[in-house]
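ok trying this again, last paste got cut off
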Amino acid sequence: MIKKFVVKGLVQGIGFRPFVARLADELNIDGWVRNTGGIVTILAAGNESSINMLRIRIQDEVPTGGFITCIEEVKVDSYIGEECTGFEILESDRDEQANLPLIPADIATCDKCKAELFDPANRRYLHPFISCTLCGPRYSIIEKLPYDRDTITMDDFDMCDNCRNEYLGRLDRRRHAQTIACKKCGPRLKFTHIGGDAGNPAKNVVHRKFTGKYLENYNSDNYAISQAIELIKSGGILAVKDIGGYHLACNPYDEGAVAALRKLKHREAKAFAVMFENTEQIRANCFVNEQEQMFLESSARPIVLLKAKSDAEKTLAFNVCNDSPNIGAMLPCNPLQMILSHELGPLVMTSGNASGDVLETDDEKMIQWLEERHASGDMDDISLGILSHNRRILRPMDDSVMKVVCGLQQFIRRARGFVPNPISVDIKGEVFAAGGDLKSSFCYVKNGLAYVSQYLGDLNTVSCQNFYKNEKKAMETIFGFAPKRLVVDKHPGYFSRTTNNVYAIDDKLPICEVQHHKAHVASVIAEHKLKGPVLGFAFDGTGYGDDGTIWGSETFLWNGSDEMERVAHLAPVKLIGGDEGARNCDTILSGFLQHYGLNEHDPNPNKSIIGAAINNNINVVTSTSMGRLFDAVSAMLDICHYNSYEGQAPVELENLAAKTDGALELQIGVDGDCKELFISIVNAINNGADKASIARGFIYAVSDYIVAVAKNNGIRQIVLSGGTFLNSILLERTISNLKQLRFETYISEQLPPGDGGICVGQAYLSQYDSSISDQNRNL
């Protein structure tokens, strides 16, 4: 019997063909397997029971990182194409391009490769680029499909004889491993010291005495690693090139080194992530439940936000996390990180760029940036170095960041390890959704799958704008997307809107606009495929409203078919506008207090000037933003007066609230009026109430407001979306109270609740836009 199988799903770049060949050899089946466009085609010849078993095992034993959506089966009378004796892996072809491909995300180093990495008897001992069919870089190095050596950046390196024998070996674990390499034929490391010889660890006595494993059997990789290790040991900052781009690393126990890193990145307050060698090290510093451990150890290796232990045997320098009660913990995801953490222990590991810029992947640009920072004189007392390699990175990939709340996973940032894995959604047709301008991401939707881009940053810089355009073009090329409609945010000033307006004109495509907060709610509806009426809460800092004002505390009633009605929000308040107005918590507080006639309680010495500007509508916006309310309360409690990064004031308010279980009783009117809230806070401060309990009481008041609005509307399906719901205290209390009242509550679990997820909501609502023809909605 001869059968042809067409296997669809995530079946390229995960060692699927060697897996099929091994099964066929075990079952005595002749034939071949090949990549065909974005799918895998198998021809199997043998007895009927063996072929049936092959199909079952292919379905049930998919290699790590992959999945199968369907297996199409055809009985044939003779071999198609090349006739084989035995079972072979054939060269890929590029027909059947209509099949939507699935490409694996970058995969963390597997346990078998890790064991070889630290085995002195193995020829890949301490090889910083060790990988196999089951692990290594994928999406960050692919140029086009099918996934083969000549379509990824490893094509720059010719295999040595030993690697080629493994690549072709029938029983070898690295059979057809496209990233195969060794010390002899693979990428190379290079250490570069910044700023001349002064402070260079290669020149000092400590380094000359270094006799560890990295100088045994000398080669350039080991020597570069030894210099990098000594740089960090001596209190320096290392730029290390990883799978998706550069990280900046330093000793998390060295307060001076951490302070210098903050100065280097212009990152004064936001907490840094810490990479630990293993889970045991994390448990020594953090509380870790089973679900959090599962995410930490998954092939994606995200940063997971964990509650810090106050009684850790060795505590991190305070300025690593500042006042945060949590640590963003991660495990090494690649061989180089494993080597560094094995030798050095925990490391601060943060993105290799100035805050707000694109993650750097280019060696020369990283050198230039560090040299400019050194020449500025700001870094005179710190050693800087770069540990680079010559494997090209085609697309920057930041670390994914997530946490667990009420047993649910919640993304703070969705990137390396998860992108470009698609999300199954109820969205018809082929559409491009542009997303927003803050924490930007976009998505393509086809065949009911949403392909969401990696985190692209804030589109207020030319570098991030170019990144956006380049990634849009790259995804179209790799996946073969040809959208039939475009959808953008309503904000007239968004780059994501204006640039895609040009695309729509050039490509003669219909384009529609979706209001920002409606997209927030719709993203959760789409992800969970909710049917029937939904009451959705969209709380964040800012979004352009249907009436031209700034929204941010919106409640919508989705009728389950085609209409989303705004049914509740905070009382509109006039605030100072512009970027500075959104950052300055003191002027925000002044706006709220003036609106409610409470100017006498405003400590701002400039309140009269601010009041005059508001009264005369000079640089003023009308806002219902929940984020701005958090800013105002944070300033009132003397927690944070200026947002040096987005959301700083709400984050620090939550950090203070986490220090107590007590909560002052506060209330927001069900009509969105906050006057009594501010009066109660003023009285509490004057009476010497604990500020942590006031902060927690305020968060509880926001939660109680949500529950009250839900009870008033009576819809049983509740959606919570928007960046405000990254507040774990708020989310936990709200979900718990709604559950007690038998509401069904949904949050984003596969997308960030903030603006990184709105693209999917935009795509979902574009199906109901009356300006788009039925034909274009369904194409």
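PB: full thing came through this time. DSSP finds 25 helices and 28 strands in the chain.
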